[in-house]
Amino acid sequence: MEQKRINRIKEVVNNRQSGIIVVLEDIHDPHNSSAILRTCDAMGIQNIWYIFEKEPHYNPKRIGKATSSSANKWLNFNVFDSTQSCIDLLKKQGYVIAVTALTDRSVSLLDKTFDEEKIAIIVGNEHRGVSEIALQLADVILQIPMLGFVQSLNVSVATAIVLWEITKQRNGKFPLPIPEQQKLLDDFLERAKK
Hints:
Helix content is 40%, strand content 16%. It contains 7 helices and 7 strands. It has helices at 3-15, 30-42, 65-68, 83-92, 132-137, 155-170, 178-193, and strands spanning 20-25, 47-51, 76-80, 96-100, 107-108, 119-123, 140-143. Helix 1 packs across helix 7 (178-193) and helix 2 packs parallel to helix 6. 36% of the residues are buried.
């Protein structure tokens, strides 16, 4: 492998954020899913968790190479068959649970300070939004303030906006610890050979 490629992989590893998991709850359209993967990679987010409780299961490693720009090659996935089991594990691991939804409990994305060391962002189905159980178990419900008549965005667009704000606020405060960087570097070098 060329040194230029190795240096690029090292740079990406160095820019990965620690303590963010993006959870896709019953996303129906694999194209939306792969667009979210592309955003996650661009924002330095490594871990994407999928919940397939109501929607048919698809393999995140095989979806939309064009839409994701092959981001799925570089990301780590975990798949669950229930929202409850997913959130239970996140809470056990110390994650603050944030969901995106328009409710009377919602907080504007612009009013939320993202200083948590561990945060999981749950985005929901294109038509139904996040599930009732996700809303009940959430520590915070986020809404994107909108100035027009439309009060919703495509799930991939909404996710990108939320992740941009979180990344902007965190501003490199939570890099991967050195041992995790080395482990990820070794992993990426292996993936690059394939």
